[in-house]
Design a protein that fits this description.
The structure is a single chain. The protein has 340 residues and is an alpha/beta fold. The protein folds into two domains: 142 residues, Rossmann fold; 179 residues, 2-Layer Sandwich (Dihydrodipicolinate Reductase, domain 2), CATH 3.30.360. The strands form two sheets. Strands 14-13-12-11-7-10-9-8-15 form a nine-stranded mixed β-sheet, with helices on one face. Strands 3-2-1-4-5-6 form a six-stranded parallel β-sheet, with helices on both faces. Helix 4 packs parallel to helix 5, helix 5 packs antiparallel against helix 11 and helix 9 crosses helix 11. The longest helix is centred in the C-terminal third of the chain and has 20 residues. The mean pLDDT is 97.
């Protein structure tokens, strides 16, 4: 079976997880790394023992290489759109770190480029492959809690000077918003669990007193979502919170409820309290904790079998639209209808 060559753009923390995931897949090989500093690309290749890996300081050089079939974009947020468009136009399949774009215009331009190139994409809403997420999807499919009517998924992750991306994360032109820089994982989780179209968004956002972490945008937000069937959703996102990393899931249906790895169901006769199921929780902001290997295995299967990922760019665009609508709602103090 054909070996797919992979090019990595970026040499930061998350790039290492992408490299490890591709190197663990029998059908892929990391063959190139791009960095503004070629020496950093070379150092990254040496760190992971990549014997047949070229190092570049120009993206165009890597995109000209016919041995590269997949491009993985692991750079700061504001670079994702131009890099992804260039890679799509070069006919490369795309692994896109989130957020894929910081505004609607960039998102639409990227969608147009991918549609025209007809390349495969997967966006790194990597928690879709987390064991708890998979367990919850199974419970919902079995109707354990009946029909959902209320859902909450929260992202609370203090990103301060102790965190690698802090220096650029605080900047509006790079970080974007609390949702775009991290809370989009919770927004995507909300959509993934409810499985319905979102029609309206309303949101509030603020800074903590004196804004001690010096964010250029409100690092805390509460976003309310109305789905087409009347289901109500809520996402609390904070990148300024001083607490252990928390990814909270609470889903309420007409036959019971799910609270993270705990379930209460009327269908289980005699149940008196929450039933807890041990599994791997999404309880760490460390990228090495995230299931990138499972995501890469899924995506490689999509390429080899010519099918689309459930987390492709078109689906991820719906998550991003909610994030953009939340910003509009905060700015204009009104509910925002979707699609934008």
């Amino acid at each position: 079976m054909k070996t797919l060559g992979v090019g990595i753009i970026g040499t930061g923390w998350v790039a290492g997880s992408h490299i490890s995931a591709f190197e663990a897949n029998a059908h892929t090989q990391v063959r190139a790394i791009v960095s503004r500093d070629k020496a950093r690309a070379q150092a990254k290749a040496q760190e992971f023992g990549l014997a047949n890996c070229a190092s570049y300081d120009a993206l165009e050089e890597m995109l000209d290489d016919p041995a590269i079939h997949i491009v993985s974009i692991c750079t700061p947020h504001h670079l994702h759109v131009p890099q992804a468009i260039a890679a799509a136009e070069a006919g490369k399949h795309l692994v896109l770190e989130k957020p894929v774009a910081l505004d609607l215009a960039g998102l639409r331009a990227l969608q147009a480029a991918v549609r025209a190139a007809r390349v495969k994409t997967v966006v790194c809403f990597v928690l879709r492959w987390n064991p708890l997420f998979e367990m919850i999807k199974g419970w919902l499919a079995q109707g354990i809690i009946g029909n959902l009517f209320l859902a909450e998924v929260d992202y609370l992750h203090g990103v301060g000077p102790w965190y690698m991306q802090y220096a650029w994360n605080i900047k509006k032109e790079i970080g974007g918003s609390s949702l775009l820089t991290g809370g989009c994982h919770a927004v995507d989780g909300l959509r993934w669990f409810v499985g319905k179209k979102v029609v309206e968004v309303f949101a509030y956002a603020n800074y903590s007193p004196q804004n001690p972490l010096q964010y250029e945008y409100e690092p805390n937000s509460v976003t309310l979502v109305r789905f087409e069937d009347g289901t109500i959703g809520k996402v609390v996102s904070s990148v300024e919170s001083l607490q252990p990393y928390t990814f909270n899931i609470h889903l309420v249906g007409d036959q019971g409820a799910i609270r993270n790895n705990q379930v209460f169901s009327k269908r289980w006769e005699g149940q008196k309290g929450w039933a807890a199921f041990p599994t791997i929780l999404p309880d760490s902001g460390d990228v090495t904790h995230h299931p990138f290997k499972e995501e890469v295995n899924h995506f490689v299967g999509c390429i080899l079998n010519n099918r689309e990922s459930h987390a492709n760019l078109e689906d991820a665009a719906l998550t991003h639209e909610i994030c953009f609508a939340s910003e509009i709602s905060v700015r204009e103090r009104r509910p925002v209808s979707l699609p934008l």
